[in-house]
Write a structure and sequence with these properties.
single chain, 138 residues, mainly alpha, 6 helices, extended
């Protein structure tokens, strides 16, 4: 068990990204999206690269570059969380896989209804209203 945890820790240290390095890349080469390549945001990095290499694109690129100063820590943290989930669950999204030889748990109808009701309450922002009890204190 300890050996497995140590291996996971070493793998994380090898694959994790640093916020300091990301800021250095942002400062020096941020106008062409190098910091986004570093953080694993390849699609937006390619867009920044294309915009940064055109004169017209620089008009859009400068504000984007400034906004990225605030987004860099979130991008790096997102990348590092994906690494942790991959090491712990084998899936970057963090969905735990069932142990070997065990079937995934099947939810009963009551569990599905309860989960659907809870999700509905979360989405609607349900808050319990207080009853009017002023008539009790007259």
């Amino acid at each position: 068990m300890v050996d497995s945890n140590k291996r996971k820790e070493l793998a994380f240290n090898e694959n994790s990204k640093s916020i300091g390095v990301a800021y250095l890349l942002w400062l020096l080469f941020g106008w062409i999206g190098v910091h986004r390549f570093y953080a694993g945001e390849t699609k937006t990095a390619i867009i920044q690269l294309i915009l940064g290499l055109t004169v017209v694109g620089l008009v859009f690129q400068i504000p984007w570059w400034l906004v990225d100063a605030f987004l860099v820590p979130g991008m790096i943290n997102k990348h590092n969380k994906k690494i942790i989930n991959m090491l712990n669950y084998g899936d970057p999204d963090g969905a735990p896989a069932p142990p070997p030889g065990e079937e995934p748990r099947v939810l009963s109808e009551a569990d599905r209804k309860r989960d659907a009701m809870l999700e509905d309450l979360r989405q609607t922002g349900y808050r319990k209203e207080r009853r009017d009890m002023s008539h009790l204190y007259r």
